[in-house]
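ok so for the tutorial part 2 we go from a plain amino acid sequence to predicted structure tokens. step 1 is just haveing the sequence, like this:
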Amino acid sequence: MNSSMYTAGTRRTASLQSVEEPAAWVRLVDGDRSVIELKSSIADNPLYKSFRTIRGAGVDIVHAEVHAEQDGVIQRFYLVARDGGVLDRNRLSKVLATLRRAHLSPRDVRALRLQGAA
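step 2 — the prediction. this is what the tokens look like for a chain of 118 residues:
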């Protein structure tokens, strides 16, 4: 009985590993409130890179949250247009694309495309 439980556990572990998320990602969390979240390696100086990229896109950050993890940093940004207005979907898409180019490796971008997130 123990061996069948172990086998079932092994299969489950194997299937969980096959849907592993990429090491880095950028995604839209809430389009109505212009909230973007990204995960990247801490070695890549992600905070500076994110702030520089967002400001360079002509967008202001009204609130930012940063959470350190063992394998990287998760950042969440609440964004508005420079005039304080809400960002439309087209503008958000451009900011997401710019952040992806700044933070993601080609391998991570391919993984996101396969998941339908990019």
